[in-house]
């Protein structure tokens, strides 16, 4: 019975920490760059594109080159965002001790 109560208390703590971590993740932003910074993409914590900046000198380039640079910048931002999300979640749950066999929800 004592173990069950402890487990329930731990579950409530985890739920609270998850809610806090999700709020922190929502506030994250990540910037990705390509073409030596000629294209910059900014993503929100949810993975939505917030901004796209294109160096004006690229506007005279072939559309295919620009498309490739935009995709590359987006992917760079996505990798950085995923890393920031994981770091945020890890810091929120890092001190929690789970029973054997249970894993963190990230």
Would you kindly provide a written description of the structure presented here, covering whatever features stand out?
The longest helix has 31 residues. With 106 residues, the protein is an alpha+beta fold. The chain contains two helices and three strands; from the N terminus they run αβββα. The protein starts with a helix and ends in a 13-residue tail after the last helix. It has one domain: Ybab, Chain: A. The mean pLDDT is 85. Strands 1-2-3 form a three-stranded antiparallel β-sheet. Strand 2 and strand 3 form a beta hairpin. The radius of gyration is 20 Å and the shape is rod-shaped. Helix 1 packs antiparallel against helix 2.
The structural domain count equals: 1
Number of helices: 2
Identify low-pLDDT runs: none
- Rg, rounded, reads 20 Å
Helix content: 40-55%
Mean pLDDT, nearest integer?
Answer: 85
List the secondary-structure elements in sequence, H or E.
Answer: HEEEH
Number of strands: 3
> Which oligomeric state applies?
single chain
Name the CATH superfamily classification. Answer: Nucleoid-associated protein YbaB-like domain
Residues in β-strands, percent: 15-25%
Q: What overall form do the CA principal axes indicate?
A: rod-shaped
